[in-house]
Design a protein that fits this description.
This protein is α/β, with parallel strands linked by helices. The chain has 11 helices and 10 strands. It has 2 domains: 145 residues, Rossmann fold (3-Layer(aba) Sandwich); 106 residues, Rossmann fold (3-Layer(aba) Sandwich), CATH 3.40.50.1860. The chain is globular. Bound molecules: D-glutamic acid (DGL). The site of D-glutamic acid has 18 residues, from helix 3.
């Protein structure tokens, strides 16, 4: 048993989509979330920059007593998780585009992946893709500009809709029946995506799988919190709190959102 918090970090507010799934599945666990929004987007940074930002976030989460770290960012996971696992003696859970379920379920044998440049260019992602490339057509598109707009809270904005229409067209031309969301910011765009996509195209993100994996790792390492204790749910941002407040609106009565330099 361990009552310390689960630590999560993302390049910004997007990883809250993962936090929601984790909190839903593990309501007795305390959490600390770091939104490194001052450095968003990570997707256009070099591998070395992504690694050093991931180390900085991990060090702070460990200083705050985290018992396990969830890298709630595909770009940080695909570029840095191996180094984090080597460097720090704590369990890490990462998030990667869910290629496997999409590839296995696709009837048209054509799937689309919307992700950041950093994720699509990573070695980890290309290795995962190699397993399926022979059997399935994969259309990868960089969601340029989407993370920055979501960081500003512009989720149902016409700018987002114009970009999504542009990014989905090449996928639809290739008759995809699964769209994989390879960035933890993108689940917030699901309502807009559904308006553009034909009904037969299903959207897959990795949030629930990450929550289940977090639960498994807590079990394996005997790290569950005592259910009688009050949980604390803290969010830290290094810019301003407005987009976090907007995205976490339904949880505002039980969480705290703070500004901190990191
Ligand atoms: N949420 C991050 C991800 O999952 C966004 C990356 C970025 O900041 O570009 O990749």
């Amino acid at each position: 048993m361990n009552n310390n918090p689960i630590g999560l970090f993302d390049s910004g507010v997007g990883g809250t989509s993962i936090w929601k799934e984790i909190h839903h599945l593990l309501p007795n666990e305390s959490t600390i979330y770091l939104a490194d929004s001052i450095n968003a987007p990570y997707g256009y940074k070099t591998v070395d920059e992504i690694i050093s930002l991931s180390i900085k976030n991990t060090e702070l989460l460990l200083k705050m007593g985290s018992k396990l770290i969830v890298v709630a960012c595909n770009t940080a996971t695909t570029n840095a998780i191996e180094i984090l696992r080597e460097k720090f003696n704590v369990p890490f859970i990462g998030i990667e585009p869910a290629i496997k379920p999409a590839a296995l379920k696709s009837a048209s044998k054509s799937i689309g992946i919307l992700a950041t440049k950093g994720t699509l260019n990573s070695i980890l992602f290309s290795e995962s893709l190699d397993e399926y490339k022979e059997h399935i057509k994969v259309t990868e598109i960089i969601g340029e500009g989407l993370v920055s707009l979501i960081e500003m809270g512009k989720i149902d904005d016409s700018e987002i809709n114009i970009l999504l229409n542009k990014y989905l067209q090449p996928m639809l031309k290739k008759d995809i029946d699964y769209l994989v969301l390879g960035c933890s910011h993108y689940p917030y765009l699901i309502p807009q995506l559904k308006k553009i996509l034909p009904k037969q195209v299903k959207i897959i993100d990795s949030g629930i799988a990450v929550a289940k994996q977090t639960k498994n790792v807590l079990i394996q390492n005997n790290l569950f919190a005592n259910t009688d204790l009050q949980t604390t749910l803290c969010f830290y941002t290094n810019t301003n709190t407005s987009t976090l407040e907007f995205l976490l609106n339904e949880s505002l009565n039980k969480i705290s959102i703070n500004i901190k330099a990191f």
